[in-house]
Design goal:
This protein folds into two domains: 47 residues, no CATH class; 38 residues. With 118 residues, it is α+β, with helices and mostly antiparallel strands. A three-stranded antiparallel sheet has the order 2-1-3, with no helix packed on it.
Length: 118
């Protein structure tokens, strides 16, 4: 079976066996709509547009948001709400099961009151 890989310049290769693989390749396709030339950054596994520059642009690190009291309380509120919904669903399921048992109960064969071990 064939599969498609891309070299680090964004050129696609259809691979039928491992002998067809380019020296440096990735299975991640470039994003659609990117302007060529592009390059693949192995460390971040991301495609970048070179945009006419000879050097590869270095990606700026994105700051990680710090958890604040508000976001923690919001997370707790979401978890409590989800827990309440789960409890309501469990209660509904129990009621449905009880209804089913009362409807099916009379259809079951009568158990004999004699104990076979006696």
């Amino acid at each position: 079976m064939a599969y498609q890989v891309y070299d680090y310049e964004g050129n696609p290769y259809l691979i039928w066996n491992n002998d067809d693989l380019p020296m440096k390749y990735t299975l991640i396709p470039p994003r659609s709509g990117m302007n060529y030339p592009v390059y693949f950054d192995v460390s971040s596994e991301t495609w970048y547009e070179i945009g006419g520059e000879e050097e590869k642009p270095s990606p700026e690190p994105t700051p990680t948001p710090e958890l604040t009291q508000d976001s923690t309380e919001e997370s707790i509120a979401y978890l409590m709400f989800d827990n309440m919904l789960t409890k309501v669903k469990l209660d509904e399921t129990r009621e449905e099961l009880a209804d089913l048992i009362t409807k099916v109960g009379p259809l079951l064969p009568e158990e004999s009151e004699s104990n076979p071990d006696e």
